[in-house]
Amino acid sequence: MPTYNKLVRDRIPQIIENSGKACKTDTLNHDRYILELKKKVMEEVEEYQQAATKEDALEELADLLELINTLVKDVHDSSMEELDKIRSDKAKKHGGYEEKVFLIEVED
Fold first, then answer.
1. How far is CA 107 from CA 5, 92, 102, 104, in A?
2. CA–CA gap between residue 60 and residue 56 (Å, rounded)
3. Which end of the chain is flanked by fewer CB atoms within 10 Å, N or C?
């Protein structure tokens, strides 16, 4: 039986069992939950970087967005609206990334 030892979406155990397989799960305490969420973000970023098609890339970005939503709500006790306000304020102050500026060096 394959061992995964990773955070999965809430309905994955049900999906596995509905396919006729059995799985073993555990419920994480808050500190471990935060750690595993952070690991999952890195996993999804890597999968996004390896995506070969637009559809695959968008799937991975959707996974990242779900993780960001979870982190904002469950870990930082905030909202996506507050996060978007912070994003917007930073964009007003520092700009976005639309102009594709690549900084090479800064002279002292």
1. 47, 25, 15, 10
2. 6
3. C
